[in-house]
Write a structure and sequence with these properties.
Length: 753
């Protein structure tokens, strides 16, 4: 604010004169020169010789450009001691600030009608800080005193982030000392001249001590929260935390709920693990965990696992007793139990190498799983796979809309739910409608078997993926389909009405890396969500996510957990199933038996839990069994909401003519319907895309067509004997119509006959 007052005082002189003299005998006001250095040419004089030299420079410049230049002469000399510059004082004007503190008091009184009573050093410091601020700054000072000179909520963060640089660049020596005094006052200690880094360290220690004892100073706590929100300053916090030692004999349950100490969270986890089955202690613990889970500071620090702990602790297995059919078990898994699978997967990812922390929660998870699987297998007779012909059903149900099907490998129902949640962050959920459904996979839940069921409806197991695609294409000769990998998806529209995308990373990573693959799953979930968002914005009305099978994780595994069985005769044993040529009477009813021809075998056997059969090789990630985690696969469909129901109907009018074109030129005639007469059906912005051999080679400009209007566009074949043209809505990229254009060269005789 003082910069505004100073500018006005100078402007009163320089509005009518080219030169003003600024006399600052104390030197306290020199900082004000920076506020006008871009407005005037400034000269400093502090001796008679300097006066003469400056007067020469000013007069010379005025002669060269008499009307343009404005000059400010700054001096600390007494007005009566001036010689050559004195003339400017008398004939042009002079601003004299003998005592800066008095100048400040006068200005506050004149402009705000307030009296300010602060010591000289505080007033000068306040003036320097006020540069760039408005009148409310001085009003606060008048009412609240010197504590308002520095806004420590804002000043402390850049200071502790880089104390040396901030102190030198932000403050002069006088202001720096005043700032240091205020910081020491905040810490409740006497001022001592010490390095900036030392003082910054004391500030952070006081902050962290306060958080550790849940009695942090409000200002320091505000700085801490801003620190975690700051992109530019955030990285320095880790350095301070690395050198900080928690107080000894600390009550870990009396720490601030927003604390930054990962070690405290792990101590909480260890203590909770000891009390998991103490029902009386659970409510108080959960109340604390809910607070920690909602803490924005904990989330910013990447402490996200409490939601998973809460999910395991709050789950009520009692409701499982009321499940009376296999279909009810499936619905229960889809609505409730999948959340436990997400929770344990996340905890495995975070704590698999910390057995003492993880083990109690894995035990709780497996207890819940055991209760649920008892019901699952009690009603196992109701099992019926619904996977065969999945893609054919989707094609049949979506004959009129442009549709994408993402066929994942090893995408569990719970991962699909995570994809849906992530997509909500990327794309507003109001832009689409999500239908959650499930498909019951065939057994054994293996890629070769299940992918065959998805692509083929004839019951044949096909090992080669390209052959599955050929089968689907042959079954739908009149349907335009494109087959690509999901990583090839971009914003470019493709000609086919159906786009089938495959993605194998989850299964590939799981089988190669086992539980080490867990750390990559969040990236995969983000990848799925990003691709679905692109597809929803690329003209496709629906995007499906399906999968061949799910998987189970064994987590911490002991030898006692492995199922040791010795089948008779010719058999093949994997982690999650046994294939046998002959019936194994000694293995039932301990195992689930399925009489099913699979390769050269006639019988399949499965465990009634999620533990693996004892086999050579690594354990951790596996599938092939009959648990809900492996068989209840996602069938999620995202459909763009709003659609075009109220929009103007537009189509290609001359499709029949386009199939037999003579010559190089052809015309596309586009017709708009009469419309409903409302605002939404008044007109529509559209454009055309051209494809040859399923590759886009041309795109028209966007044009507007009015209701009941005919628009004709003329194009050339450009060397392509057959072209597919698509008419798209320019806003939603929805495909409105399509046509095939064929060039008939036999009829184009060119006048030879």
């Amino acid at each position: 604010m003082i910069d505004i007052w100073f500018n006005k005082d100078l402007q009163c002189i320089l509005d009518t004169h080219p030169v003003a003299v600024f006399i600052d005998e104390s030197g306290d006001a020199e900082f004000l020169l920076k506020t006008v250095e871009n407005k005037f040419t400034i000269h400093q004089v502090n001796s008679e010789v300097e006066e003469l030299h400056v007067k020469y420079l000013i007069e010379k410049a005025r002669q060269a450009q008499p009307a343009k230049k404005k000059f400010l002469v700054y001096t600390r000399m007494n007005k009566d001691d001036l010689k050559f510059v004195r003339e400017y004082c008398e004939t042009h004007g002079c601003l004299e600030i003998r005592y800066l503190q008095n100048y400040i008091k006068d200005k506050v009184h004149q402009t705000l009608n307030l009296n300010i009573n602060l010591p000289k050093d505080d007033l000068i410091a306040a003036a320097k800080v006020s540069v760039g601020k408005d009148s409310t700054y001085w009003m606060d000072l008048c009412h609240k005193g010197a504590t308002e000179i520095f806004d420590l909520n804002k000043e402390l963060l850049p200071f502790i982030h880089d104390p040396d640089t901030y102190s030198k660049e932000k403050y002069d020596s006088q202001l720096r000392e005043t700032f240091y005094r205020k910081v020491n006052d905040l810490l409740g200690q006497d001022y001592l001249n010490k390095p900036a880094a030392t003082l910054a360290g004391e500030v952070v220690k006081a902050m962290l001590d306060g958080l550790a004892h849940a009695n942090c100073n409000k200002t320091l706590e505000a700085v801490y929260k801003n620190w975690l929100d700051s992109i530019t300053c955030r990285n320095s916090l880790n350095g301070y935390l690395g050198s900080y030692s928690l107080p000894k004999k600390l009550d870990i349950w009396n720490v601030s709920i927003h604390h930054p100490f990962g070690k405290i969270d792990e101590k909480w986890l260890a203590e909770i693990g000891k009390k998991l089955f103490n029902k009386a202690a659970i409510p108080d613990i959960l109340a604390k965990l809910h607070q920690r889970n909602l803490s924005k500071q904990a989330q910013a620090l990447g402490i996200l696992f409490w939601i998973d702990v809460i999910a395991l602790m709050e789950f009520d297995p009692g409701v499982i007793a009321y499940l009376s059919s296999f279909s009810e078990c499936v619905e229960f898994y889809k609505k409730h139990f999948y959340k436990l699978d997400s929770a344990i997967r996340n905890l495995y990812d975070r704590f698999l190498n910390k057995r003492d922390l993880l083990e109690p929660f894995q035990e709780l998870y497996k207890e819940h799983v055991s209760v649920f699987l008892d019901k699952w297998f009690k009603h196992w007779s109701g099992y019926k796979e619904t996977q065969t012909g999945t893609l054919q059903r989707i094609i049949d149900d979506n004959s009129s809309v442009k549709t994408v099907v993402i066929v994942g490998d090893g995408v569990t129902f719970e991962i699909a739910e995570q994809v849906a949640a992530t997509l909500n962050v990327i794309v507003k959920s109001t832009q689409y409608v999500l239908k959650r459904d499930a498909i019951i996979a065939d057994i054994p839940s293996e890629t070769e078997n299940n992918m065959s069921r998805i692509y083929m409806d004839n019951g044949v197991t096909e090992a080669v993926h390209s052959n599955r695609e050929k089968y689907l294409t042959a079954q739908n000769p009149d349907v335009a389909m494109d087959f690509i990998r999901l990583d090839q998806v971009n914003e470019e529209s493709r000609p086919g009405q159906f786009l089938i995308c495959t993605y194998k990373d989850i299964d590939d990573m799981g089988e190669k890396l086992q539980q080490k693959a867990l750390k990559y799953f969040p990236e995969t979930i983000e990848f799925f969500a990003q691709k679905i968002a692109i597809l929803l914005n690329s003209g496709y009305a629906k995007v499906y996510l399906i999968s061949d099978h799910g998987f189970v994780l064994t987590g911490l595994l002991s030898e006692a957990d492995k199922i040791s069985v010795s089948p008779e005769g010719e058999f093949y044993k994997a982690e999650r199933y046994i294939r046998s040529k002959s019936r194994q009477t000694d293995l039932t009813p301990a195992l689930i038996e399925a009489e099913k021809s699979y390769k050269q075998f006639r019988y399949l056997y499965f465990a009634r839990n999620i533990n693996p059969f004892k086999t050579p090789g690594l354990y951790g990630f596996s599938h092939g069994g009959v648990s809900p985690q492996e068989l209840v696969t996602p069938c999620f469909c995202w459909e763009r909401s709003g659609g075009s129901t109220a929009s103007l109907s537009v189509g290609i009018e001359n499709k029949a003519d386009l199939k037999d074109i003579t010559g190089e030129l052809f015309q596309i005639k586009i017709q708009a319907a009469k419309g409903a007469g409302d605002l939404f059906s008044k007109d529509r912005k559209v454009y055309l895309l051209f494809f040859a051999s399923k590759i886009q080679f041309n795109k028209s400009d966007v044009f507007t067509i009015q209701r009941n209007e005919h628009v004709t566009k003329e194009y050339t074949f450009d060397g392509h004997p057959e072209i597919e043209v698509q008419l798209l809505d320019a806003t939603t990229k929805q495909q409105l119509d399509r046509a095939v254009i064929k060039q008939n060269k036999e009829r184009d005789l060119g006048g030879l006959f």
